[in-house]
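Re: Re: token formats

Sure, here are both.
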Amino acid sequence: MVPGRGVDEVMTKAQSHVNGVLPGEEGLSGKELRRQERFLAILEAAGEAFSTKGYHRSTMEDVALRAGVAVGTVYLYFPGKEALFVSLLDHLAQQLLGAVVEARSRVQGVLAKLGASIAQAVRVFAANRSQARIVLIEAVGASPAIDEKLASIHTLLAELVERDLREAVEEGLIPGQDLDISSKALVGTCYEVILGHLRDGRPASLEGSVPALLDLVFRAIGAANRRDPQ
């Protein structure tokens, strides 16, 4: 698997979140901006509903009530609950990637950037427990379309990790290895640590787990000399 244009496009969108501008927001009229604001307000309300009541017990009426709009307005933006949830997953993924882009910009060197990416992703979930539950618990098995969206997000994250690993191999910082397996294993490791915290409180602190997680990651890929992100 070789990361390509799709990764670049997603990272460009993520950078827009860092800059405080949503994709496609530039040059919008006042009416279009208000529509964009309402769209985001509905997504925020959906996040509250799904994290509180779960996907299956939440309704479009719940979302409308939390957003302070008529249920018909919600349907103007989303044809149904499944489409709303998929859009919410997209939005949360862009927020996560935006935070990762910002963290990477503060360090130099591919291993430091890899470490910053992993640390920031864990810290985002630690600071947003309700969002973490939506992505890692409520979404799983909710519907085929939602499972497909989750799979695409996992694939993207693995491709981002693989890009860093490939550069590190080319620079002689880590030994040659099966990059596809390594990247998927690293993403899976982070996933299990976060999921364990959400389900049974182990580890007790996600923030506190970052040093041990990074140590495991760097040892796993054979990085003898690395620079941990601050």
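Second one below.
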Amino acid sequence: MKLKIQTIITLVGFVFGLAATRTIQADSQCTNLSQSQCEKNDDCTWVNGYTTQAGVKVDSYCRAKPGKANDQGDRDRRDRDKDKNRDKDKDKNRDKDKDKNKDKDKDKRDKDKDKDRNKDKDKNRDKDKDKNKDKDKDKDKRDKDKEKRDKEKKDKEKKDKERKDKEKRDKEKKDKDKKDKDKNK
């Protein structure tokens, strides 16, 4: 009894399987045409019979040329799935392009910010250079003033020394003259 039930279930499954595969493959305008009718139709091509590697003999038949099916209903499920996948890939690529554009925009903004920072750094560097130049000028001026004061001081000391030396000589001369006068007397 169990064997009969299993056999019935298997047969029912097989019948439904055949029905399902038949609905998946819709007939095209080229199905069941004779060789002469097939060759006259520009959308069809004749396939000569052949034997598969497994040894199964396949009879000659007429089929639709690729992309020449009668309408969307004539294409099999695999083609529709390929189209869906292609559309999904296009959407993914579109999203990737959007992301790339966002990244490019962000990179551009970052580069612009870096340029602005560099300009600010350059301005600050130039200001610092100007400040340093001013400091150097001030230092040079102070150094020159100091040199001038030192020279004036040395000149003054020299004059003072010369004046003292002259006074000393004059005094010595006077003293000598006075001694000589006293001697002569």
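Residues 12 and 18 are 10 Å apart (CA to CA). The helical segments are 2-24, 35-40, 77-184.
- S.
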